[in-house]
Write a structure and sequence with these properties.
The chain has twelve helices and no strands. It has 317 residues and is mainly alpha-helical. The longest helix is centred in the C-terminal third of the chain and has 35 residues, at 225-259. It folds into two domains: 18-161, CHAD domain, CATH 1.40.20; 173-311, CHAD domain (Alpha solenoid).
């Protein structure tokens, strides 16, 4: 994995830096990204789908940072900001789901006799997408009344070390980082005890993998560069596999919902799409199974086991 991919979200590669400074800078960068994409998602044309996607990703990153450094943050302000970020993410969810559905349906080569039904379905989904934008517009009105920027600044100004100090005062990145990473790794390894037979288990593994990736991004500067790059690279591969499974699982639910009450060619279209999607879902689940039980999956689990046991070559330079 290119070093640029590691350093984009890593604030320093010096393990001797104060954990307070790391927390402030890591959260500042992530919350700044939320504000930037929130503004773009609210004001740009709906055909521009990337801002909403990046908004949801940036919120997940910010929430992961808030959870990681929760003991350094004032409780009430932390909880208020978490609730607001989750509300924005929830408001953006339907719009993002419809963006994905519209893109997928537009790319599928349907039988020629179902092309008119597909065109009508796309028109229907576009209407639903316009309605979904209203949730974000409501969040934008709340932003004018109470700017997110001010709320973030007030939280960060009150961030400080609240635990016992070491001989030199506040612990360093290298000293404090491993204990913050370990629970996230253990959560992932617990979710990893799956045979992949249940979609709910794969979804839980996907969520745990995202949390772990965001945690490693924050703490990679306290790890050796090679280990951080290897773990992040493998986690990205895993997320790609699980993301394809999730896309098809969501599509199955959507097709069932949209098929209700459909007649004629519309009913034929949703039935054809459902059968096609089921075949593809079987394929991507097997793709995940091959990756997870193969060399890369074993390498990822071994690397994470090393992180939990704090092997010096992994957790320090």
């Amino acid at each position: 994995m290119p070093m640029q991919a590691i350093t984009q979200w890593t604030v320093t590669d010096s393990p001797g830096t104060s954990i307070e400074w790391i927390a402030v800078e890591a959260l500042r960068r992530r919350l700044r990204s939320v504000r930037r994409y929130f503004d773009r998602a609210c004001r740009e044309d709906q055909e521009q789908t990337e801002p909403i996607h990046q908004l949801r990703v940036s919120i997940r990153r910010a929430l992961a940072g808030i959870v990681m450094f929760k003991d350094l943050l004032p409780r009430r302000r932390r909880k208020r900001l978490k609730r607001r970020l989750r509300a924005i993410r929830m408001a953006a969810g339907p719009a993002r789901d419809l963006d994905v559905a519209i893109e997928r349906l537009g790319k599928i080569d349907v039988p020629p006799d179902l092309a008119p039904a597909r065109a009508a379905a796309l028109e229907r989904l576009a209407g639903l997408r316009s309605a979904a934008q209203q949730g974000l517009e409501e969040m934008a009105r709340q932003e004018k009344a109470k700017p997110l920027k001010g709320q973030c600044r007030k939280l960060l100004r009150r961030l400080h070390w609240r635990g016992p100090t070491c001989r030199r005062g506040v612990p360093t990145y290298g000293e404090d980082g491993p204990r913050r990473l370990r629970p996230v790794v253990e959560e992932f390894l617990a979710a990893a005890r799956t045979d992949g037979s249940e979609l709910a288990q794969l979804h839980a593994l996907r969520i745990a993998g995202k949390r772990l990736r965001y945690a490693v991004e924050i703490l990679s500067g306290a790890m050796c560069e090679e280990s951080a790059a290897a773990v992040l690279g493998l986690l990205n591969e895993l997320q790609d596999c699980l993301g394809r499974v999730n896309d098809h699982a969501v599509a199955d639910v959507n097709y069932t919902e949209w098929a209700r009450g459909a007649t004629g060619q519309a009913a034929e279209l949703w039935d054809w799409l459902t059968r096609r999607n089921a075949e593809e879902l079987d394929f991507v689940r097997q793709e995940f199974h091959d990756w997870w039980t193969g060399e890369h999956g074993r390498e990822l689990r071994a690397s994470l086991a090393a992180l939990v046991h704090e092997r010096p070559a992994v957790l320090s330079h």
